[in-house]
Design a protein that fits this description.
The structure holds two protein chains of two kinds. Chain A has one domain: MetI-like fold (Orthogonal Bundle). Chain A is 68% helix and 1% strand. Chain A is built from 13 helices and two strands; from the N terminus they run H-E-E-H-H-H-H-H-H-H-H-H-H-H-H. Chain A has a two-stranded antiparallel ribbon with strand order 1-2. In chain A, strand 1 and strand 2 form a beta hairpin. In chain A, helix 3 runs antiparallel to helix 10 and helix 5 crosses helix 7. Chain B is mainly α. Chain B has a single domain, classed as MetI-like (MetI-like fold). Chain B is 72% helix and 0% strand. Chain B is built from 16 helices and no strands. Classes of the chains: A mainly alpha, B mainly alpha.
Chain lengths: 303, 295
């Protein structure tokens, strides 16, 4: 008879253990993840804009209301713009930094890496506080610095055209270190032989970069794009602290719109409908990520 | 040939030569790289410098002098920020919530990861996938029903409102399971044959052999709670129950003119995560890279 490890045998007396070990996590997931998701979807089909009155079924009315609401489209546009700009800039700058830090002759590598990573561990709310002060029209350092370059003072966060770009700079500042670290790991995983044979063939630095480095790290790029899309799409903390969506909805992200609709005006039905739309968008991006690059990527294990 | 593979040979032939040979070229390359790195680094550290400099200025002189580096060192802002506002209270609240969440994510997550790794039962993989599926639910999608549950439990402005909805995290279970898989089965089988319960196998063998991952989970859970803003904003808006980030946000209205206090408070809120990062950089970076698979 073939010997089988004890734990793989059918062992009915493990069943109580299994039950007890999984019970706490299952209960918590059920109450704080699965039930709320179903409840949010259900609520999106009910009319409930007054907490003291019972919800009444209203079919697709909330969706019709939401999609005919101009502010919803404004928030989608703002969020989309923010997401694309922050994701693109943080990936490009992160890659440039990673390639620079990956140079084999650079001194003090770990010093630079730590320095560029600091913003990523800074709490968002704290960073947003500093941004308010940095971009203060009267005594912020940004206006002082621009004064040295003879550029006129700006009102930044209260200017309809500049408020969103100002918030974007915080997003990029905070994200660059993350993309840099991930790219560094990917770059270090590229076998040196590729570069040596390119050198033997007489390829220049630019050619090597565009024909060897970029294609070989494209799975990492794809992963960073999907992560960046999801992360930036959910932007909330810094907007709420800095502008609360203003001036005149110029920085109204979907998260802030949801928050103000549901918890300032208590239109919980509209909020739940927005929840479902957000869930749908994020789930689509996540599923695409899992389909195209798998659940995790092998070069990530290299760190 | 690559310099790195070549150096040992040179070393044998000329013990000092490899220090001299590439050094001029190396310095030139470093100078070129620094031309790019220094301006980039300036942009990264300017906010930190402005925060620290502003926190050390005398009260009422926030814009003057307009330098990035401190010219005055008025630490009274820190004393005032800690005394004048319930800032110490925010710190205390955040610490309680963070410790509770860290412990529960390790204990409850460890138990679940143990079941998923070492116990065989029907539909185990399906249940695991169901757990993992929670990683792609954005908090915004479920916040309204959670808010209503907490309201019905009369939990607003209590620690349990801040702790219980955060007590379990699929990503922590995933990381722990990855670490548990690496524990040799023989150890567990031997302990089981000797009559050890699964509970003691988990705490005496499996967890001690996965300490690095446990530490990663602890660090990430702590930082998650430390930086959390949206949920505490809804669950605890009474001043004595605020956590560090919502407390900072509350400064916004209360101390609109007292920028120096404000920045002192911001520095105080920023120190712990940065310290943790500097001390546990290795755990941090590996955990972050693995979080790449998080949705």
């Amino acid at each position: 008879m073939k010997w089988r490890p004890i734990l793989l045998r059918k062992r009915p007396r493990d069943l109580p253990t299994m039950f007890l070990f999984l019970l706490p996590s299952f209960l918590l997931f059920a109450v704080f993840s699965f039930y709320p998701m179903i409840a949010a979807i259900r609520l999106s089909f009910y009319k409930w804009d007054n907490l003291s009155v019972a919800p009444t079924f209203s079919g697709l009315n909330n969706y019709i209301q939401l999609f005919s609401n101009d502010r919803f489209w404004t928030s989608l546009r703002v969020t989309f713009l923010y997401t694309v700009v922050v994701t693109a800039f943080s990936i490009i700058l992160g890659l440039v930094l990673a390639v620079t830090l990956n140079h084999r002759w650079l001194f003090l590598k770990s010093f630079w890496r730590t320095l560029f990573f600091l913003p990523t561990v800074t709490p968002l709310v704290a960073a947003a506080m500093v941004w308010i002060l940095l971009f203060n029209p009267n005594f912020g350092y940004v206006n002082t610095f621009l004064g040295y370059l003879h550029i006129p003072r700006q009102t930044w966060l209260s200017n309809v055209n500049l408020a969103l770009p100002t918030i974007m700079t915080l997003g990029i500042w905070r994200r660059v270190g993350f993309t840099m670290i991930v790219y560094l790991a990917a770059l270090q995983a590229i076998p040196q032989e590729y570069y040596e044979s390119a050198r033997v063939d007489g390829a220049g630095a630019w050619q090597t970069f565009f024909h060897i480095t970029i294609p070989l790290i494209s799975p990492t790029t794809l992963m960073l794009v999907t992560l960046g899309l999801i992360d930036s799409f959910l932007v909330f903390d810094q907007v709420l602290v800095m502008t609360r969506g203003g001036p005149s909805d110029a920085t109204l992200s979907i998260g802030v719109f949801l928050y103000t609709s549901a918890f300032s005006f208590f239109k919980l039905d509209l909020g739940a409908t927005m929840s479902v739309v957000m869930l749908f968008i994020v789930a689509t991006i996540t599923i695409l990520q899992w389909r195209f690059i798998g659940f995790g990527t092998s070069e990530m294990e290299a760190i | 040939m690559d310099i790195q593979t070549f150096t040992p040979m040179i070393k044998i032939m000329h013990p000092h030569r490899h220090f001299i040979l590439p050094s001029r070229q190396k310095i030139m390359v470093n100078l070129a790289l620094l031309l790019f790195l220094i301006p980039s680094a300036m942009m990264i550290i300017t906010p930190f410098m402005w925060m620290i400099t502003s926190s050390l200025k005398e009260r009422g002189s926030i814009g003057e002098p307009p330098y990035l580096y401190p010219t005055t060192f008025d630490f009274s802002n820190y004393q005032e920020a800690l005394k004048d506002t319930p800032f110490a209270r925010y710190y205390f609240n955040t610490t309680i919530v963070a410790v509770a969440v860290v412990l529960s994510r390790i204990v409850i997550g460890g138990m679940a990861a143990y079941a998923f790794t070492f116990l065989k039962f029907k539909s185990r993989d399906a249940l695991f996938l169901l757990y993992l599926s929670t990683m792609m639910i954005p908090f915004y999608a479920i916040v309204i029903p959670i808010y209503l549950i907490v309201r019905d439990l009369h939990w607003f402005n209590t620690y349990q409102a801040l702790i219980v909805p955060r007590m379990v995290d699929a990503f922590a279970i995933l990381l722990l399971r990855q670490a548990f898989i690496a524990v040799p089965r023989d150890y567990i089988d031997a302990a089981r044959v000797d009559g050890a319960s699964h509970w003691s196998v988990l705490w005496r063998i499996v967890i001690p052999m996965s300490l690095s991952t446990v530490l990663t989970v602890a660090i990430f859970s702590f930082l998650f709670i430390w930086n959390d803003f949206f949920w505490p904003l809804l669950a605890a808006n009474e001043d004595k129950m605020r956590v560090i980030q919502t407390g900072l946000q509350a400064f916004n209205g209360r101390y609109n003119v007292e920028w120096t206090y404000w920045m002192a408070g911001t520095v105080i809120a920023t120190i712990p995560p940065i310290l943790i990062f500097l001390v546990a950089q290795k755990q941090f970076v590996s955990g972050l890279a693995r979080s790449g698979l998080r949705g």
